[in-house]
UniProtKB/TrEMBL annotation:
Family listed: Belongs to the cytochrome P450 family.
Protein's organism: Streptomyces fodineus
PROSITE patterns registered for this protein in UniProt: CYTOCHROME_P450
Molecular function per GO: heme binding; iron ion binding; monooxygenase activity; oxidoreductase activity, acting on paired donors, with incorporation or reduction of molecular oxygen
InterPro entries in the cross-refs: Cyt_P450, Cyt_P450_B, Cyt_P450_CS, Cyt_P450_sf
Keywords: Heme, Iron, Metal-binding, Monooxygenase, Oxidoreductase
Name of the protein in question: Cytochrome
Gene3D superfamilies: Cytochrome P450
Superkingdom to which the source organism belongs: Bacteria
Entry keyword annotation includes Oxidoreductase: yes
Length: 396
């Protein structure tokens, strides 16, 4: 027997300033909550670990926005010309497209990027001279942009534009949908030109490889090629930036852990996995749409409803993690920040590699690193979907 769902006002200043306290209260109140996005669109939010994990693999929850019965503009979709991507597809289209694109993200290929990532990180750290230094500006933001643009084959002189466009896409203000779509269309126009140029002059990069897949039988269609190029560029940047920033902050807030890492007792990878759980760079999973009435935790979600799973909430669920609010890199990791199942993030190995190289190089370069401001003065990006710092001022 199902019960009426709790209804709550979720997407407000309280979620921005205290996301984990807010989600803790929601988990206590119930497993699923009916609320609205900032532009008034109805949405259902799943908050408990077991329910979130199950929802991530439930075939009754579609990623294809054609299955929605709701309205609302708040970052609900990309422009039509960028719809043909993995985050808007279900099998069998998703299966075919992921098979083609995943060839570029094998563990071997990503590990082969380590020296190039290291060179970028060393160059960025060499350039840090000011005190205090903002590590978001000096390291966390530019490193992933350099790496993903190099991987795709985007010319160096055009990368500043991509940073500006990405910032626009992430904006959560009431008029964000208009600004976000404008930035996406700028990206679309630019990528169309780059792809045309690479057709005439192929290179050893991911875009060229995707073009070759486009021209093969059963390969990428032209809309899929453009949409995937955009998605890889955008997602390959955002998660890595926030992971580097959040992991660095976690070490700064936990000096004993930092000492253990420096001494070689705690692996940097363990710090990253705990950061992904404790202060998740991605707080909400990709929106899904109910293909039929679905019951989660005794709550029935009607057909066509938009559903968001809270990864940040699931990762702090005491039913799954002992002392979930404590940062403990030694714990066994079972976080969901890169997703679960067939939609598990393709770029996860790249994000881990970039963050591992960045943190290792940073700790080696600055042995007395510490925060330059009180923790209550740290500012977070105004986003309900991502958790990342505006600035991270440090001294050493």
């Amino acid at each position: 027997m199902t019960s009426a769902p709790p209804s709550t006002t979720l997407f407000n200043d309280a979620l921005m300033t205290d996301p984990y306290g807010t989600y803790a209260r929601l988990r206590e109140a119930g497993p699923v909550h009916r609320t609205t996005t900032p532009d008034g669109a109805p949405v259902w939010v799943v908050t408990r670990y077991e329910d979130v994990r199950a929802a991530l693999t439930d075939p009754r929850l579609s990623l294809n926005k054609a299955n929605t019965h709701t309205t609302g503009r708040y970052q609900s979709s990309m422009p039509p010309e960028l719809d043909a991507h993995l985050l808007n597809m279900d099998p069998p289209d998703h299966t075919r497209l992921r098979r083609l694109v995943s060839k570029a993200f094998t563990a071997r290929r990503i590990e082969g990027l380590r020296q190039r990532v290291q060179a970028h990180a060393d160059r960025l750290l060499d350039a840090i001279t000011e005190r205090p230094a903002d590590l978001m500006h000096s390291l966390a933001n530019p490193l992933p942009m350099e790496v993903i643009c190099e991987l795709l084959g985007i010319p160096a002189q055009d990368r500043r534009d991509f940073h500006a466009w990405t910032h626009s896409v992430l904006g959560p203000a009431e008029d964000a949908a208009v600004e976000s779509r404008a930035a996406m269309r700028e990206m679309h126009r630019y990528l169309t030109g780059v792809i045309a140029a690479k057709r005439n002059k192929p290179a050893d990069d991911l875009l060229t490889a995707m073009i070759e897949a486009r021209d093969e039988r059963d390969g990428l269609s032209e809309p899929e090629l453009l949409a995937m190029a955009f998605l890889l560029l955008f997602t390959g940047y955002t998660s890595s930036v926030n992971l580097i920033g959040n992991a660095t902050l976690a070490l700064l807030l936990h000096p004993a852990v930092m000492t253990s890492v420096r001494a070689g007792r705690t692996p940097v990878r363990a710090v990253l996995e705990e950061t992904l759980r404790w202060n998740a760079p991605v707080t909400l999973g990709v929106r899904r749409f109910a293909l039929e009435d679905i019951t989660i935790g005794g709550i029935t979600i009607p057909t066509g409803s938009r559903v968001w799973v809270s990864l940040a909430s699931a990762n702090r669920d005491a039913a799954q993690f002992t002392d979930p609010d404590c940062f403990q890199p030694e714990r066994a990791s079972a976080h969901l920040d890169f997703g679960h199942g067939i939609h598990y993030c393709l770029g996860a190995p790249l994000a881990r590699l970039e963050a591992e190289v960045a943190l290792t190089a940073l700790l080696a370069r600055f042995p007395c690193l510490r925060l330059a401001i009180p923790t209550d003065e740290l500012e977070w990006l105004p986003s309900f979907h991502h958790r990342g710092l505006k600035k991270l001022p440090v001294i050493w």
